[in-house]
Predict the 3D structure of the following.
Amino acid sequence: MAHTKNDSRLDRRAFLQVSVLAGGGLLIGFSSPDALAQRGGGPGGAAASLAPNVYITIHPDNTFTIIAKNPETGQGIKTALPMIIAEELDVDWAQVKIQQADLDPKYGAQMEGGSRAIPSNYHNMRVVGAGGRVLMLAAAAQQWNVPQSELTTARGVVSHAASNRTATYASLASRAATLPAPEVTTAEAALKNPRDFKIIGQRIRGVDAQDIVMGKAIFSIDVAPPNTLHAVFDKCPVFGGKVVSANLDEVKKLPGVRHAFVVEPAGQGSNSCVSGVAIVADSWWLANDARRTLRVMWDEGAAATQSSVGYLAQARALAAKAAAATPAAASAPAPAGGRGGGGAMIGDVNAAFAGAAKVIEAEYFFPLLSHAPLEPQNSTAHYKDGRLEIWSPSQIPSKQHPATGAGIPPENVTMHLARSGGGFGRRLVSDYDVEVGRIAKMVTDERVAAGLPSVPVKLLWTREDDMAHDQYRPTGYHFFKAGLDASGKLIAYRDFVASTNSVVPANEFPRGFVENVSIMSENVTPFSVPTGALRAPPTNGVSFVIQGFIDEVAVAAGKDPLQYRLDLLNSPVGPGATGGFNPARARGVLEAVREMSGWNRRSELPTGTGKGVAFQFAHAGYVAYVVEVSVTASKALRVRRAWCAVDIGRQIVNPSQAENLVHGGLIEAMSHLMAWNITIDKGRVVEQNFRQYQPTRMSQVPTDIQVRFLQTDFDPTGLGEPSLPPAVPAITNAIFAASGVRIRSLPLAPQGYSWG
Amino acid sequence: MEYSLNVNGVSRKVDVPERMPLLWVLRDSLGLKGTKFGCGIAQCGACTVLLNGQPTRSCVTAVSAVGTRAVSTIEGLSPDGSHPLQRAWVELDVPQCGYCQAGQLMAASALLKSTPSPTDQQIDTAMSGNVCRCGTYLRIKQAIKAAATGGGRA
C-alpha cells in the first residue's frame, strides 16, 4: 500500500496564508515549502508567484466554504476532513458548504489509500481551522481595542462579554486581511480541548447524501462535458496479449461509430495502457455494441499457458521441498523490514517441534480476488492543442498518468477529482487514466486531420472488462506447523508461504509471542496475473489464515480460543519483534468483544450454532470481531449476529461513517467468504460478471452488527481497512464452533456451502 | 427508430436503435444520469427504474420493449427530495459511495407502494436484486422501516 510522508504532524516550516476575495470574502490556508517548491515557487520566492493554499473561504453572509482535499470513494473523507476544519474554526456545521478540491500540489498529498487520510491530516486540518479562528480573534481585538484573551468565539461570531459586543467573522474579514497570518505555533496553541468539540465526534451526515438520494450527485461516470464522445477499449483477455490485427474498417461503418483504432501500449507497470482496440461512438452503448462486430487477432503471449490449478500444485511442491530442506537450526536475527518483509527465523523451530508434546499442521489457501467496485472503471478527458483536461476517479490521482497516455508533459494536464462509486483499492491503479489520455489524444488527432474540432472522450469499461483487467488481490498458500508443550503453550510456529507477490506476514502475530518462529516464502512462478492492493492488504487474506490457524492451535491445546489469544498477547518474547504492534491494544479489543458478545455464555447456544473470534492489527488500527453463525447439515450458513470492537485512538471524527465502515467491513468479508474467487485458465480470468462473482446481498446479512469504539490515548487513525480482515476468520472460526468443520480455504461455495 | 417515452410523467421523444437498453437512453439520450450502470446483466440493480410501478433492470430492457409504460427514475421520485424514503435515507446517513442508492431507493419505493408496512422478510425479498458493494444494507433496511407506515414490522 502506498505510503505518505509528513504523517500526523504539520511540517514545521509550514505557514498560514490569508488573502482577500473580490466581494469581501477571505481565504485562509496553509502551505508547506515542499508543496510550493513543486510548483516552482518557495517560501523565499516572490509573493506574487505563490498561489494561496486555500481551505477556508469566509463569505460576506458569514457562511463558509471549506475545501475537501482528498478523493471521495465512499469512505466519507469529503465530510470528515472539513468537519475537522470547521470544528477549530468554531463555526456551525450548518454554516458550511463543502467544495471538492482539484488536484493541486498546494493541497499536499491528495490520495485515498492505506487508511491514511485521518492520521495524515487530522492535526493539519485542525491547525488550518484554528489559524482562521485566531485571525478572527486578532481582528476583533484590534477593532475593539481589547485584549484578545477577553474574547470568545462560537458559531462564526467573536464576542466580548465585558462590553457585550459581538462581530461575525464576515464583518471582521476585511480587517483580518490586513493582519499578518498567524504563526502555525500560535494556531497550534489555540487548538480546542477535545472535550469542547461540537462537530468532531458528532454523527454528521455525508455531505453529498441529499444529492445522492435525489440522483443528483455527479459520479465519475456521470461527467459529460458538451459534445462528449464515448469510448470502449477492447483488450486481450490474456494478460500481456497484443493486437495483431483487427477489422477496423468494418467496425467504422457501424451506426454511430466515429473512430476505431488500434492503441499501442504506453507506460510501464500498473499505471499503463496496454495494447488494444478503441471504439469511439456517439453513445456508449453504440460503441460497446460495435464490439459484437469487432474481430481482433491477438498475440496472446506467454501467459496463455498458466492456470490457477497450476499455481496450487506448484505451491504444494514448493512447500514439500521447503519442509524437506528446513535447516536443522537457525538463529538468524529477525529481519528489520516491515510487514511483508523477507521472512523471519527466530530460535530453533525444528528442535522445538522435536520436543513438543503436540504438533499440528495445516494448509490454508485464499484465492485471487477482484475489487468489483460497483462503478466500473472510467475516466473522461479532453485533449486539445497539446493540453489535456481530465476528470479522474483515481484514489491516487496523478497528472503523470494521462500525460503518459497522451505523450505530453504532466504540467500540461488539468485534473479534476470526480466522486467514484467505490474504490476498495482498485482505483489506486489508474490504468483508465492512461488509456483515456491516449484515446483522447488519438481522437483529437484524427479529428484535427479531418478539419473537425476536438471533443472530450469518455472511456467506460464494462463489468466484464473490469473483472478481466483488475490488479487482483494476490493468492496465498500457507503451510503451517505448530508445536505445543504439555500445558498447551505454543512453543514453535512455522508458516511457509507460497506467494504470488511476496506477501509474507513476517511481522504478524503470533510472531513476537512464541520462542521459536520460522516464516519463509517462495514465489510461485511464472505468474503473469497483475496483483495489487485490495482493502487492507495484506491482512485481508493473511488474517484469515493466521487467525484460523491460531484457533486450531487453541482447540488443540484444549483452551478457550479467545483466552488463548489473550494469554499469548500477555507473553511477549523479545523486544521489538512485533512490527509496531501494541499487544495491550489488541487485548483491549478482544476483552471488549468478549464482554459485548456474551462470549463466556456461548456454551448455551443451540446445536448447530456457534461463536467465533478473531482480531487483527491492520493499518494502525486494532479490530476484534465475535460472530455468531448457524450451520445446517446441508451447509446452509447464516451469520446471525456480530460484535466488533475497534481501537483507532482517542478520537472518532464521525461516528456515523465509522459505524458504516464497520458494517461494510463485515459485509465485504462475507463476499470474500462465500463466493468471491478469481480463477485463471489459459492466462485469462474465468469469472466474467457478478453472476460468477456474487457479492453479499441484503437477505444474507446479520440483523445486528454491534460496534464499540474504544477510546485510547493514541493519535487517531483510519478505519476503512482495519474493519475488514478479522471479520473473515471470525466467521470461519464460528463455523468450526457451530459444526466442527475447520475452514482452511476460501471461498466456501465450492465446498458446498450456501447462505441459509 | 423514434420512440415516445413517458419518463417521470413527461413525454420524451428519442431516436435510438431499438435494441438500445433503456438505461443508456435515459443516461445518454435524455441526460438522466441518476440511474447507474453496474453490470449490464441485471445482477446488481444499480440501474433499477420502475415501469408502471414495477422495479425493472433498465440495463437489460430494450427501449423497444418499454411501449407506453410509465418510466419512473430517481429524478422523479420527488421534486425536492421529500419522499419519505429519501428523507429516511438522509436522516440515517445510509450511503457510503452512494452509487447503488438510486436503484435501492427505486426498488424500495415500489415495495412500499405495494406493501406499506413490510416485514423484514418482505424487505429482504424485494431488495435482493440490489447490491450494495459498500455494505450499507443494515441502514437501508432501517430506512425502509422508518419510511414505512408504522415503521415497518420485524
Q: What stands out?
A: The radius of gyration of chain B is 15 Å.
